[in-house]
Amino acid sequence: MTASHPEDRIEITRNRIPNAEIAAQVRTDEDGAVASFDGCVRNHSHGRATLYLEYEAYEEMALVKMREIAAHIHANYPIRRVAILHRLGRLEIGETSVFIAVSAAHRAAAFDACRYAIDTLKKTVPIWKKEFFADGAVWADGELPPVPAETPAAKPASN
Amino acid sequence: MTVKVLYFGRLKELFGAAEEVVEVREGAVIEDLFSRCSVARPELRKFRASLVAARNQEFAAWNTPLCAGDEVGFLPPVSGG
Domain B2-75: what homologous superfamily? Predict the structure, then answer.
């Protein structure tokens, strides 16, 4: 679908995300800016001490939605390359769960596209986080993704 | 016809199952499939307002018609990042 940007890197992984390597890969000599977002595991949530997190995904669909985000920012911001990586499985405090890097000739586009990418990922990519505490575990409160409106035409006539 | 149903997050945990194949009538929509699944899994009903459906890896309205072999996911609020 987005084969026009072969240098992009859109991945779901169970391994440690090599942040510095990813940030370096999106950069070319034509760029004056690389903006990145490093989402990492915090040691507290709603006033409780977090021990670790576990992430799971609807992997095939998550990749579809992540590629859509990349396609959207290519179409709407003057940027060069995009990397979006999300990690699954058990993550310890301080580890990176999501890493996004965007290169562009100028900083405004890189910042804006990177911000759009993480905000949209959190709302539309089917990934779930479970938080583990000393006294139990909970699925994190999430966001319900926007869904196409129901249309009367979509239902076959019943009469 | 049959379709594949996928459960994630708290639903997968609750049911101890990630997927199942479900028989629905020709012309069924996603809401019909949800009702069908709720017969075998009554706890599913209470999640209806806090789920979205996906058909073949795209978010879909509850009145979307199904085809044989479709893959339908019932997705809790997402919390990636």
Answer: Beta-grasp domain (3.10.20.30)
Q: Which residue of A has its CA nearest to B73?
A: A58
* ipTM score of complex: 0.96
Tell me how close the Cα of A62 comes to any Cα of chain B, in angstroms.
8
CA–CA separation, A133 vs A47, rounded Å?
Answer: 11
Q: B12-45 pLDDT, tens per residue?
A: 999 998 999 999 999 999 999 999 999 999 999 9
Q: What is the pLDDT of residues A16-72, one digit of tens each?
A: 999 999 999 999 999 999 999 999 999 999 999 999 999 999 999 999 999 999 999
Contact B49, A136 (CB under 8 A): no
Nearest-Cα distance to chain B for A63, in Å, is 10
For residue A1, being part of any structural domain is answered with no
